[in-house]
Amino acid sequence: MKSFALLILVAGTAAHAQPGEIDSKRSVVKWTGSKVTGSSHFGKVPVKSSKLVMMGTEVVRGGVVLDMANFTVDDLDGKWRTKFLTHIRGKDFFDVKRFPTASLTIDAIKKGMLTGSLAIMGKSQPISFKVKKESGFYVGKAAFDRTKYGIKYGSGSFFTGLGDKVINDRVEIEFRIAIRPSS
Questions:
Q1: What sign results for the dihedral spanned by CA atoms 173, 126, 86, 92?
Q2: Are the C-beta atoms of 123 and 95 separated by less than 8 Å?
Q3: What is the mean pLDDT of each run of 10 residues along the chain (183 residues)?
Q4: What is the pTM of this model?
Q5: Which residues of 149-169 are buried (b: 16+ CB within 10 A; e: fewer)?
């Protein structure tokens, strides 16, 4: 009898689930990378696609694909912007010719905590971070250690003698995500 009741509960829950997706025009994913000197660069990563499972207006699981080939740097102009983007999109960093996307798999969002996995350059690592709904948007901050994805350029964890050229391993992400139902 317990199994039958559980089956009805699961079937009823599944019946209320509906698909959703990120509204990329209203959403922003911002990255910040820094050096040990305190200087930093920042920009945005476009959302390429998403498939979410919703319960009412709440995201319960899903996946997001980020467009690494078209991320921006917003604090540089002219030749410095071009130089930076060429380098960070190249083999020393994200190698976007081979890995044009990154992805976030959302296993669950419970009590304000998102758990899942982040895949960059073909390597997947578990990730968890706080997220909250604010004025109809999911907002929050997350971080990842770039060296866990094979991005070691300028890392003081792998190279000595870099002095003030050390680039921090931790990359910060700040997001404001709008969700809409999908068909």
A1: positive
A2: no
A3: 44 69 96 95 97 93 97 97 97 97 97 97 97 94 97 92 92 96 79
A4: 0.87
A5: bebeebbbeeeeeeeeebbbb
